[in-house]
Amino acid sequence: MSNAPLQAVRITSVTRESPSVRTYSFSPGFSFRPGQFVMVTIPGIDEIPMALSRADAITVQKVGDATAALFRAGPGDLLGIRGPFGNGFPSSKKTLAIAGGVGAAPLRPLAVGGEVECLLLGARTAEELLFLPELAGKTRVMVATDDGSSGYHGPVTGLMNELPLTEYRQVCVCGPERMLHAVLLALDAAGMAGRSYFSLHRYMKCGIGICGSCCMDPDGRRVCRDGPVFAGDTLLTSELGKYSRDASGRKKPV
Q1: What is the CATH number of the domain that holds 173?
Q2: What global pTM score does this model have?
Q3: Spatial contact of 121 and 129, defined as CB atoms under 8 Å apart
Q4: Among 107, 163, 171, 175, which residue has the least CB neighbours within 10 Å?
């Protein structure tokens, strides 16, 4: 869908998920595969990539000027959306999903669709665990919080030691990059890197593979076209967990 036109959608509701995260429902919705993303235009501000958390919703963390402007929008306001773009997570019934923070958003459709056998859900605090009541009604959920306010006290990777990883057909992962890298190393040690899929986030300008702003070292794969979901074994020698690039192309540590 590289030629997907800009479509105007109207916000129908805004749900506060945590102190820094909101879900924006809109109409009309889109046909998509879990893990795909859209380019969202906040009129007069910027265009940014966002994963779809539902066919008719994006879940947004307030992290910069564009998302701060979106936080000022409400029901009735218009957004521009292009997409969906990229590839999504493979479909499989025996899936382990691992989510950190707002990384739960692109994994939500997999779980709600009945494809996740177990979900490891991590966040900094209990208040920041996303979609917990909904997801707990769809699959087995194991929780980890950095401050110990709910579930396992520590990073979500600590829960991996409690599971028979090799019994899962695949592992789907999304979250902060340091978490992604730690999960990848753990899966590689268990011989599961080739059966894992990671949703990556990189700075994007066009979203359709033309500008090259989201290319990754060392092989130049574009996150917007070749991703955003990549097989874990293809990331072992990549820049993942080491650095990303800002809008000017300069490296910045993750």
Answers
A1: 3.40.50.80
A2: 0.94
A3: yes
A4: 163
